Amino acid sequence: MADGSESLKPQKNNYPDYPNPRKTFVPLENNPETFTHLASSLGLSSDLGFYDVYSLTEPSLLAMVPRPVHALLFICPANVYFQCRADEPRPNYGSDGYSLTGSHEPVTWYKQTIGHSCGLIALLHAISNGPARLHVAPGSELEQLIQDAKPLAWRPRADLLYQSKLLERAHASAAVKGDTAAPDSSEPNGYHYICFVAGKNGHLWELEGGWDGPIDRGYLPDGAAEDILSERALELGAKKMIEKADGNIEFSMVALAPKPKEE
């Protein structure tokens, strides 16, 4: 039985304005050290770091993650990702696609047009939104990139990232930092990176560069927006995806949070 994933999978080049084959990066290894190095290389303050999240239900394991969590990077197997997407209606943004920009956007969202850059795009979503945005170094290239992106529609915003030498340099440096040999950029990537953050409207947002725009997952009451590992945030976001996995446990999660003072 077809699972509906074929209609959702990206073709060789879904973006006619870009070269074919388009620019492709070496996939990032999913570990906190790689993401902390990448964030620091881009211009994020050393006050923040990335941390493994080993469980969403075991209190002793959740207690190992510094709080509050500003963003959660959720790495999902491709088959589960496509099933989750097939189970919900595709947003209808009209012929021009997602159109919100600047102050009208509750969150800053980036479309992915660089191959194998889903980890980078997830990190950019994490540090361009919520409290983490305040930790971007003033006057840095990263701050300028985020500022330049905000007033742009999704397509020129994606082109800004596509052409960025800052992102290219930082990603290349981080791609060799993992515990295993970096794969070739031509190798298929069987996972999708999703970022959960709180928006300016107090809602939980699911951000992923391969989709058509940001997804509003609902209101976070009673201070839950201040911690993306709060029970309500998990119920609206990551736990829903895990419930649809039908026993598949090939998930991993990395949280962006303040570094403890002893680090």
Please, how many helices? 9
Number of strands: 6
Mean pLDDT: 87
Task: Write down the Rg.
Answer: 17 Å
Strand content: 5-15%
Quick description:
By secondary structure, the protein is an alpha+beta fold. 29% of the residues lie in helices and 14% in strands. The chain starts with 31 loop residues before the first helix and ends in a 5-residue tail after the last strand.
Structural account:
The protein has helices at residues 32-42, 59-62, 78-86, 118-127, 141-149, 154-163, 165-175, 231-236, 238-243; strands spanning 48-53, 71-77, 191-198, 203-207, 215-219, 252-258. It is an alpha+beta fold. Strands 1-6-2-3-4-5 form a six-stranded antiparallel beta sheet. It is globular and about 45 Å long. α1 runs antiparallel to α7 (165-175).
Give the tags.
9 helices; alpha+beta; 6 strands; globular; 263 residues
